[in-house]
Write a structure and sequence with these properties.
Beta-galactosidase, Chain A, domain 5, periplasm, Heparinase II/III-like C-terminal domain-containing protein, about 650 residues, five-stranded antiparallel beta sheet, single chain
C-alpha cells in the first residue's frame, strides 16, 4: 500500500508548530494485503514535523553520555502551569526514519536505514530478531530499537487500517516481550528509549483514532503499562543538559500527559528548566560543540515550548530568550553560501530560514528577514564566526566568511579542532573541515575527530590531549580581523596561532609557533574542497583549483625565523595509511580531498602561511623586509597591494 503524507506547517515567529498529516490510501500493490475496513474509521492523528536531527544518528556505542547542568536552572519554568492542568500531547513524528520503510516492508518485517540495503529483521509475521545487526553499525541497531520505522504503519492505523494497526501492535509487543525492563544489558535499546516511548504514544493515539474510540479496548490494554514502564526508565535515567536529555524529558512529559500523571510532567519540566540554561548559554552558544546540533537544539527547544503549552506546562520566557540568542549565533555561523560552517559532528547542511529571525536573512542570502546585528561573533564557548560583510556593499555570495574554534576541552559532539579555520571567498569553499564520519568506533571516526582532520598546527608524534585553548587577544578593524590563541595540545608541546583575515584583498595570514622539550615534526594543515586539485610548485607554494573554475587558491609560506627545509610543502589526497586527505559531506559519503601540509622539524617551529583565493588568471607577488623589530610582507594580490606586519610580540597587523 502506498501512503502519501501531506504536511502543513504553521510558522509562529520562527517556531515550527503543529503539522497535520492527512493520508490518502491508494490501491494495494501486488503482494500486499488489503487493509481491513474499520467500522468507525478515524480522521487520522496530528503529527509534528520532523526536526533537523543531524546525520539521523545520535548514538556512540559502548556508553551513554550524561552532561551535567552547569548553569542555574530557569526559575520561570520549574513549576507546571496553574491555569491549565490538562491538555494533549501531539505525536512528535518519526524523524524521517519511517520514510524509507513503507507498509510493504513493514508487512515483510524489512527494516531500512541510511545507505544500507533493506534487511529482513523478522519472520514476516512481526516476530523480530532484536539482536540483528547485519552491518555491525551501532546507529542502524539503535534505530531498529527506536521503532520509528513503524511510522507509516502508525499513520495508516490512525485512518482505520486494521491490518496496519495489528502489525504495528504486534511488533511493539514483540519488542516488549523480547526486551525485559530495564534494558541495561543492551545499549542500543537503552539509547532508543526516548524515541520508542514516543512511537508507543503515537500508536496509542492511532488506535483510538482508527477505531473511533475514546479509551483503549481490552485487546490493547497492555499499552499503558508499557508506557509507564518506559516512564519509569526515563525517571531513573536522565542524560542531562543536551539533546538526549531534552528529548528524554519531552518523552516523559508526553507519557504524563497521555496517562494523566502529574508527577511525570512535573519532573520533566524541572529537568527542562535545569537543562535549557546549559544547553544554550547566555550568548546563544550550544554546549554540544557542533553547528548542526546547534541548529537541532534551536528547533528542539522550540518544540519544548509548544509541548509544554499544550498540556499544562509552563515554558516561561527563558526558552524564547535563549533561542533568540541562538538564532543570532546560527546566522553568524552561516557561510556566504548559506550553509553552516561544518564544525564538530556536523554534516554539510544549509541554515534553516526560520521566519522573522536573523537565520532567515542568512539562509536566504540576504533576500529576506532581519539582518544579523554583528559582522563578527566571538563566543566564550569557543566559537568565532566572522565575515567581510552581510552583502550590503557586494553580493552576499561574494563576501568572505570564516570560523575559528577555541575554548573548553573537547566534549559531547566536539572534535579536536582548536585553532582550526574554515573559510569561504569568491562564492566558494576555500578551506574546509574534514566533516563527520558517523558514530561507529573505527579508524575513520577517530581520524575525523583528530587534529589531523582540521586546519590547525599538528604534531604527528604526540598524543592529543583534547585540551582547552585560550584566546590571548583579538582586534577587529574595518578591513582586517586579528586573533591569537595558545594551548598545550600534547604533553611537553606548546603552540600559538595568530590569524589575520583581510578584506580587499580577501585572504588569510597565519603564524603558527610550536615548541617542545624534544624534537618533533610540526605540520600546519590546510584542508581543501574535494572538487579541487592541489599542485606543489615549490617548497613554499601550492596552488589548488577545480577544473573550469574561475577561482584558484594560492597557499604559500614565507621563511620567518627559520629557513624552509626540503619537503616543507606536501599534498595528501585519498591516503589510507595513515588516513589523510578526505572529506565527509555526510556520514554516508566520503570523498578524497587535497590536504596541504607545511612542515618543520625540531624543538621549535615558525610557520608563516598565506591562503589567497584569487581569479584563475591572477597572481600573487611579495617582498619582505624589516621595519625596526617588525617583519614586513608587501603583497600584490592580482594588482591590489597591501602590507602585513609581524611584530616582535607575534601580532599580525595590516599596515596598509
Amino acid at each position: 500500500m502506498s501512503l502519501v503524507k501531506v504536511r502543513r506547517l504553521h510558522a509562529v515567529v520562527g517556531v515550527v508548530a503543529l503539522a497535520v498529516i492527512t493520508a490518502g490510501l491508494t490501491t494495494p500493490a501486488a503482494g500486499e494485503p488489503a487493509p481491513a475496513a474499520a467500522s468507525e474509521p478515524g480522521a487520522g492523528i496530528e503529527v509534528l514535523p520532523d526536526l533537523p536531527e543531524p546525520g539521523v544518528a545520535q548514538f556512540v556505542p559502548g556508553r551513554s553520555n550524561v552532561v551535567e547542568p552547569v548553569a542555574a536552572p530557569a526559575r520561570d519554568m520549574e513549576r507546571l502551569s496553574s491555569e491549565r492542568a490538562s491538555g494533549s500531547y501531539t505525536c512528535p513524528g518519526f524523524g524521517t526514519i519511517d520514510d524509507p520503510n513503507p507498509l510493504a516492508n513493514l508487512y515483510r518485517d524489512v527494516f531500512t536505514w541510511g545507505s544500507f540495503a533493506p534487511y529482513r529483521v523478522g519472520n514476516g509475521s512481526g516476530n523480530i530478531n532484536w539482536r540483528a545487526n547485519p552491518y555491525n553499525n551501532p546507529s542502524w541497531y539503535m534505530w531498529l530499537h527506536s521503532l520509528r520505522w513503524l511510522g507509516q504503519g502508525v499513520i495508516a492505523a490512525s485512518l482505520g487500517d486494521r491490518t496496519a494497526m495489528d502489525r504495528v501492535a504486534t511488533v511493539i509487543r514483540d519488542w516488549v516481550n523480547d526486551n525485559p525492563y530495564s534494558w541495561h544489558g543492551d545499549i542500543g535499546a537503552y539509547e532508543a528509549t526516548r524515541y520508542r516511548t514516543n512511537v508507543i504514544i503515537c500508536t496509542r493515539q492511532a488506535i483510538l483514532s482508527g477505531l473511533g474510540a475514546t479509551s483503549l479496548p481490552s485487546k490493547y490494554a497492555w499499552i499503558d503499562p508499557v508506557l509507564r514502564e518506559h516512564a519509569k526508565f526515563l525517571v531513573n535515567h536522565w542524560s542531562g543538559a543536551w539533546n538526549h536529555g531534552t528529548e528524554e524529558s519531552l518523552a516523559l512529559f508526553g507519557v504524563g500527559c497521555t496517562v494523566n500523571r502529574t508527577d511525570y510532567k512535573q519532573l520533566a519540566q524541572e529537568r527542562l528548566a535545569a537543562g535549557i540554561t546549559t544547553s544554550i548559554d547566555k550568548q546563544g552558544s550550544t554546549n554540544e560543540q557542533s553547528t548542526a546540533y546547534a541548529q537541532f537544539n534551536y528547533a528542539l527547544w522550540g518544540r519544548v515550548s509548544e509541548v509544554l503549552r499544550q498540556c499544562g506546562g509552563n515554558p516561561g520566557s527563558t526558552i524564547d530568550q535563549r533561542r533568540a540568542l541562538m538564532a543570532v549565533w546560527l546566522a553568524t555561523a552561516t557561510t556566504s553560501l548559506g550553509r553552516l560552517h561544518q564544525i564538530g559532528d556536523s554534516e554539510l547542511i544549509k541554515t534553516y530560514p526560520y521566519a522573522g529571525t536573523p537565520m532567515e536573512y542568512a539562509a536566504t542570502l540576504g533576500q529576506s528577514g532581519p539582518r544579523p546585528p554583528r559582522r563578527v561573533g566571538v563566543y566564550d564557548a569557543g566559537y568565532i564566526f566572522g565575515r567581510t560583510g552581510w552583502g550590503q556593499t557586494r553580493p552576499f555570495r561574494g563576501e568572505s566568511t570564516y570560523s575559528i574554534r577555541y575554548g573548553p576541552a573537547r566534549a559531547v559532539h566536539g572534535h579536536s579542532d582548536h585553532m582550526a579555520v574554515t573559510y569561504t571567498a569568491r562564492g566558494r569553499d576555500i578551506l574546509i573541515d574534514s566533516g563527520h564520519a558517523g558514530y561507529q568506533n573505527d579508524a575513520w571516526r577517530a581520524w575525523a575527530r583528530s587534529p589531523f582532520a582540521h586546519g590547525t598546527l599538528t604534531v604527528p608524534t604526540a598524543t592529543d590531549r583534547a585540551a582547552a585553548t585560550r584566546m590571548n587577544r583579538h582586534v577587529l578593524e574595518p578591513m582586517s580581523d586579528f586573533f591569537e590563541f595558545s594551548d598545550n595540545p600534547a604533553t611537553g608541546v606548546y603552540r600559538t596561532r595568530g590569524v589575520l583575515f583581510l578584506r580587499d584583498p580577501d585572504l588569510i595570514v597565519t603564524l603558527d609557533q610550536g615548541s617542545s622539550s624534544k624534537a618533533q615534526q610540526y605540520q600546519t594543515m590546510w584542508h581543501l574542497p574535494s572538487d579541487q586539485t592541489a599542485t606543489i610548485y615549490s617548497r613554499s607554494t601550492v596552488v589548488a583549483q577545480a577544473p573550469g573554475d574561475s577561482t584558484k587558491t594560492i597557499l604559500f609560506q614565507i621563511p620567518y625565523r627559520q629557513s624552509l627545509p626540503r619537503g616543507a610543502a606536501l599534498v595528501k589526497r585519498g591516503q589510507t595509511s595513515p588516513i589523510q586527505g578526505w572529506h565527509y559531506p555526510t556520514i554516508f559519503t566520503r570523498k578524497a580531498a587535497p590536504t596541504v601540509q607545511f612542515v618543520r622539524s625540531g624543538t621549535s617551529a615558525y610557520i608563516l602561511s598565506f591562503v589567497v583565493p584569487i581569479r584563475t588568471s591572477g597572481s600573487v607577488k611579495y617582498t619582505t623586509g624589516w621595519s625596526g623589530s617588525t617583519f614586513v610582507v608587501n603583497l600584490d594580490v592580482g594588482g591590489v597591494k597591501t602590507s602585513i606586519g609581524v611584530t616582535a610580540g607575534g601580532s599580525l597587523v595590516r599596515r596598509s
